[in-house]
Amino acid sequence: MDHSMHGTTMDMGDMPMRCKMSMVWNTEPHGICLVFPFLQIQRSTSSLIFWLSFLALLSVFFEWSRLYAGSLDRQLRSTLRGAGGNLAAAGAAVGTSTPRSGQARRPSSALGDASEEALLGGRSRQAWGSVRLPVSIQTRRSLLYTLNLAISFYLMLIIMTYNAQCIGAVLFGAFVGHFIFQRNFDLAAGGGEDDGKGLSCH
Length: 202
Description:
Elements: H1 45-96, H2 108-118, E1 125-127, E2 130-132, H3 135-159, H4 164-181
Antiparallel strand pairs: 1-2
Helix pairs in contact: 1-2, 1-3, 1-4
Subcellular location: Membrane
Protein name: Copper transport protein
GO cellular component, one term: membrane
């Protein structure tokens, strides 16, 4: 009897691997899919090094994006506070000036309305110590926020693989990124809204 498989050999290393899932701590990274099936750690050492480096660099990038978003908010806050201070000084000068004969003094509320219009090119609105930002600036802030949130969620899903190598790569990247990009320490109380927030659930 002639069998079609006779005389042929099958190399199991050439067969595609199925995504491996584990709900307990494990130290075997080969076969793990990094959330998506096409992002799979293959059996080769080069594949392992590549994907672990990818996770570490992604953690570093996350720390940089946090720093960039925070610095953008601090710069914007400083600009708005400076504009508010200049407008307050101008209002005091106008309020103390003596009106001409027959000319009524301008109410302070009118100056307040003008101050609101002057902030950010007249496109903002002050209310209860806050400023309504223009759509262009708020869109940029929201995009950065969404990017940071997406990266944070993705890295949390990587942590949920329970794999020692993958978790170690994420934590190593977080350490390097925090060491490089969070070295400047703000002495002001409440210097940033995201201080202390790292790779954690939102």
